[in-house]
Structure formats: structure tokens, C-alpha cells
Design a protein that fits this description.
Glutaredoxin, alpha/beta
């Protein structure tokens, strides 16, 4: 656990201009906190011809990729396709990992955003949060976009913070967490 926290600190210190104490405080506030995921209040976009789904709630791990109104742009949407290799893990490790892509829409923009999602090239469903229910239910998640990708355990507690696509150290920890979850499933 200390190694994971040290990796979090290292990641944030290397990618943030924030003072060391502020980064440490952000991590401490998030790590271990329970995340509420009100999917029933969100609109779900599904790419045509794909059968990836985040409907399975009984997975050991959930990777949340969240975008709020501040960092949701066409550029962001176009880069979501970089997740395609990762989302394949849902089928490869069924019952172990699921991915939730949640995009908070600006006031009155949910329908417009829904129409633009075809440009993402992501082969996975995306939830559009037009009511901002995710951020309202999770005040522990800071506005800093570096904290908007995180891994949850079975109890929806945050066990890893960081983007495995953008950080190799986070990717290694993420893959190790999947292996640990697979191993614990075999024992049950």
C-alpha cells in the first residue's frame, strides 16, 4: 500500500506544478474514499456495431475515466480512442475489470455532445452526465484533471489514481492490480 501511495506522489510531483503538500493532501483525500456512480441518471452512448458495455456491476475492479466540463473538448473526445487496447480487457478478464467513461456535459449541451461522440473512435460505451450528478455525489474528486482517472475496488473505494495511458508506472500498477484480482478470484 505504501508503494502505491509513493507512486501516486511521484506521479503527481512529476506532472503537476502544485506544491508538494497540496498534491499529498489531494491524494490522501481521494485514496480510499468511496465513489458513488449514479449511472441511472446519465445517458449512455453506445458505438454502432460494438458490444462493449459497462453494465456489469459485479466486477472486482472498475477504472473510471471522468471528464468534467473544464476538460471536455473535441481534442479530448478524439483522444478517447487511445483507450481501445485497454477496454479489450473487459472481455479478456470478464468479471475482473470494467471501464466507465463518464463525460460531464455543460448546461444544455448533453444532446449536442451525444451527437459528437461518434468522432471518438472509442469502441466502448460512454456515459453523458448532463445533470452533473457524478461530481455532486463525489466532492472528494478535485477539479484537477490529473485526478480524473482512477481505479476502484469491489466496494467502489479508490485504490489507484492516475492515467495508465499517460504514465507507465501507473500502467504497471494497474496491470498488477488486475492480476491480483484474477488470482483472488481463482481462490474463491
Amino acid at each position: 500500500m505504501k508503494l502505491v501511495l509513493k507512486c501516486f506522489l511521484f506521479f503527481f510531483l512529476m506532472t503537476s506544478c502544485s506544491p508538494k503538500d497540496k498534491v499529498k493532501r489531494l491524494l490522501e483525500e481521494m485514496h480510499g474514499s468511496t465513489v458513488s456512480i449514479p449511472l441511472n441518471s446519465m445517458k449512455c452512448w453506445q458505438p454502432m456495431g460494438e458490444d462493449y458495455s459497462s453494465a456489469k456491476e459485479d466486477c472486482k475492479l472498475t477504472l473510471v475515466v471522468y471528464s468534467d466540463t473544464a476538460d471536455c473538448s473535441m481534442c479530448y473526445l478524439q483522444h478517447l480512442g487511445l483507450w481501445n487496447d485497454f477496454v479489450k480487457m473487459e472481455k479478456e478478464h470478464e468479471g475482473i475489470i470494467r471501464f466507465l467513461f463518464i463525460i460531464e456535459a455543460r448546461d444544455g449541451e448533453a444532446d449536442n455532445l451525444y451527437g459528437q461522440l461518434g468522432m471518438t473512435n472509442l469502441k466502448h460505451c460512454i456515459y453523458i452526465d448532463g445533470n452533473r450528478s457524478f461530481s455532486k455525489n463525489n466532492p472528494q474528486i478535485p477539479s484537477n484533471s490529473l485526478c480524473h482517472t482512477f481505479l476502484l475496488d469491489e466496494s467502489n473505494k479508490i485504490v489507484l489514481i492516475g492515467n495508465p495511458i499517460k504514465n507507465e508506472a501507473i500502467e504497471k500498477i494497474f496491470l498488477r492490480k488486475i492480476e491480483e484480482a484474477k488470482d483472488s478470484s481463482k481462490l474463491q
